[in-house]
Amino acid sequence: MTAGRRVLVVEDNPLNLKLVRDVLTASGYEVLPAVTGAEGVTLAATCDPDLVLMDLQLPDFDGYEALRRLREDPALQAVPVVAVTAFAMREDRERAKESGFDGYLEKPISIRELPGQVGAFIGRGRADAP
Hints:
By secondary structure, the chain is an alpha/beta fold. It contains five helices and five strands, in the order E-H-E-H-E-H-E-H-E-H.
């Protein structure tokens, strides 16, 4: 696996998770799945992801809380975290940005655009990384 190709996907909907995993795997990404915020935070600390795709609606705590916990780990400070949600209002996008997400993807995910979007987020990294 080449550098910059490991994506942690935190998504509790099995169909959405399968779609993202299948599309990204077919595009050469290594995909690590997590179905709860806690699982995502724990896995991120051990898997050295290049990007985290974070659903905002999760069964234990929401994506905002998961992001807060990820940012507390110095080893994850430079990892871009992208909000993924069905909420598509401008206010939702602004809240995600203000909360520290590095980007925003709307559901339903575009299978044509997803690999390029992921590559762009990885290439861009975090604007405010230490």
